[in-house]
Design a protein that fits this description.
171 residues; 2 helices; elongated
């Protein structure tokens, strides 16, 4: 689970002994080699923000497709921040319309326009943070490590899932 403190690495496969065969069919000498065989492509995913896990749509051994969201965080607070930022943009835009209607100074209009720009930037930031509440599988592969359960709190950098492409291995 996420409380175990770190990501585990895949267990190495057993040692394979290779015996070269001489042209006559008898073994001239034996060669033994050990190696760790691991997937050529493996991805470790973590969230860039702190949150409570809302869904875990996979388990170890499941196949995932690129773009599939295997784990998501609870987004209620983030959705509220987006709604608040949308309201702030609307209020700032209303202020500009009011100032234009009553005929105010250019300085006040410039200040109100800056308020709209600021509110718009905060809205974009809130929307970007909301988008980070769902991990997306960057590759198609197999879930080989899952270190999180529904209800657990995750922190930035904590590896919650590892996906590997098991169609190609390296020694």
């Amino acid at each position: 689970t996420a409380c175990s403190g770190g990501a585990s690495t895949p267990a190495p496969l057993p040692t394979v002994a290779l015996d070269p065969v001489s042209p006559s069919g008898s073994s001239a000498q034996a060669v033994t080699a050990s190696a760790e065989i691991v997937p050529a492509t493996h991805i470790q995913l973590s969230f860039p923000l702190t949150g409570v896990v809302k869904t875990v749509a996979v388990k170890e051994g499941d196949s995932v497709t690129a773009g599939q969201p295997p784990v998501t965080l609870d987004t209620i607070i983030l959705e509220t921040r987006v709604a608040q930022a949308q309201a702030d943009v609307a209020a700032a835009e209303t202020q500009i319309r009011y100032l234009r209607r009553v005929g105010t100074s250019q300085e006040q209009l410039d200040s109100a326009a800056a308020s709209v720009d600021r509110a718009t930037a905060l809205l974009a930031s809130a929307q970007a943070t909301l988008a980070q509440a769902a991990l997306s599988a960057p590759i198609a592969g197999t879930v080989v490590v899952l270190n999180v359960s529904v209800g657990e709190t995750v922190t930035p950098g904590l590896i919650v899932i590892q996906i590997s492409d098991l169609s190609e291995f390296q020694v």
